[in-house]
């Protein structure tokens, strides 16, 4: 099991343990983390799984592919830490990762 | 008339207003999804040849490849340049211009702004519901659906509420297609004349906002944003964007406000469920949107030769993504032909499209519908209390919008 710390918009932290291999979006929606929706089910087509990765963990993530980049271009408040959660699979390497979630998606 | 299964495959032409009016189109979509999910039709006289993309997954594929499947080349509906303006609005642009303009208006419908808007939406919804007659037949479309969506639109634009029915009219005129026999306007010229009045009104509003401090309404946002501040100097582009926001913010949610009543009435078991557990409103709303799918399709144009689902697509081909079909695709949605208000993933549906053009106002639409039903159920909490008492009249404008012009309803109290 991999541990993930989600910090919501108001600063509340929720730590969850999830199976190796699922995505950060699934980790969030399975655990009812507020602010993450995942409408397209992980096809990188809705951007309702936008989240901010703690900078310390950023370089351990796979690079942003074209389609993810294109979708990130239409989210509000994109910054250097932005990722689409469905495009990041959790692995033992990411055990303990810290993720900030926005107030909501649209 | 032949049944959908008897028509030879190569003669199927779903782009026929008659099929949409009667809902017969569903039978054709079922067949296409099963037998020829990417289907070529060469016999349509009104629009010309087109491909139908009917499966959920294939639609997502087209939506996520804007560099191949363009919105800008020939417009976004099966008809070339629907509005007859000859100019793109941002929904009909490709990157990077699309992104810049989209982001100028996006804050208006951000989660933060929606929270601020909710109080006002609830108050207006309450006023509208309080004013409804009971034990008496009335038109739900006019009294509820149009009234609420138009008030909302006026708030979003910072448009004078007392003139709000002008927005309703411009929406109807904008989406009317006199060429294919709409009764809304007499001629293409009459239509353009009315649209120019709309443009004039909004240009005045724009100058007013541009001269004032920024406010959280759409016109002010456009007037102050870097990417859009000079838009009125390109009047047709300005008009195109206005039409997008007026029609996109009006016809669609309006249709689902009506469709949701109808869906509950036709599925009394679900109506009972909702009355017993009003908190289901949050999943009922996206399910009602899926059920209605007020925008039947969007169109793309292939910018190069490409393969799609095993079919050879040629540069310049017209690709029609039928959302209405994708939302009934059993490969992506469980028991898609049933209206189920407590589905597990109700937002996994394609009524808002996907990819970079995905509907900007999707959460606003959900918010308006949720508030409507929360407040309605507080007043009338018995199954079938809001009763459809006659046949709904579908809109006659086009095969793009799926909605109603009249829906006779009686509130039994
Ligand atoms: S779930 Fe849709 S983009 Fe990630």
Notes on the protein architecture:
The complex is a heterodimer of chains A (106) and B (413). Chain A has 106 residues and is an alpha+beta fold. Helix content of chain A is 17%, strand content 22%. Chain A has helices spanning 24-30, 55-58, 66-72; strands at residues 2-7, 13-18, 50-53, 82-84, 97-100. A 5-stranded mixed β-sheet of chain A has the order 2-1-5-3-4. In chain A, strand 1 and strand 2 form a beta hairpin. Chain A is globular and about 30 Å long. Chain A starts with a strand and ends in a 6-residue tail after the last strand. Chain B has helices at residues 17-21, 25-35, 56-63, 97-105, 111-130, 140-157, 165-175, 188-211, 218-224, 235-266, 268-276, 281-292, 323-326, 362-379; strands at 38-41, 50-53, 69-70, 137-139, 297-302, 306-308, 311-313, 318-322, 386-388, 393-394, 404-406, 408-411. In chain B, a hairpin with a 2-residue loop joins strand 6 (306-308) and strand 7 (311-313). In chain B, helix 5 runs parallel beside helix 14, helix 7 packs across helix 10 and helix 8 (188-211) packs across helix 10. Chain B is globular, with a radius of gyration of 21 Å. Classes of the chains: A alpha+beta (106), B alpha+beta (413). The interface between A and B is medium-sized, with 20 and 26 residues. The complex binds FE2/S2 (inorganic) cluster. The site of FE2/S2 (inorganic) cluster (FES) has 14 residues of chain A, from loops. Chain A: InterPro entries: 2Fe-2S_ferredoxin-like_sf (IPR036010), 2Fe-2S_ferredoxin-type (IPR001041), Adrenodoxin-like (IPR001055), Adrenodoxin_Fe-S_BS (IPR018298), Beta-grasp_dom_sf (IPR012675). Chain A: It comes from Banduia mediterranea. Chain A: Keywords: 2Fe-2S, Iron, Iron-sulfur, Metal-binding. Chain A: It holds the Pfam family Fer2. Chain A: This is 2Fe-2S iron-sulfur cluster-binding protein.
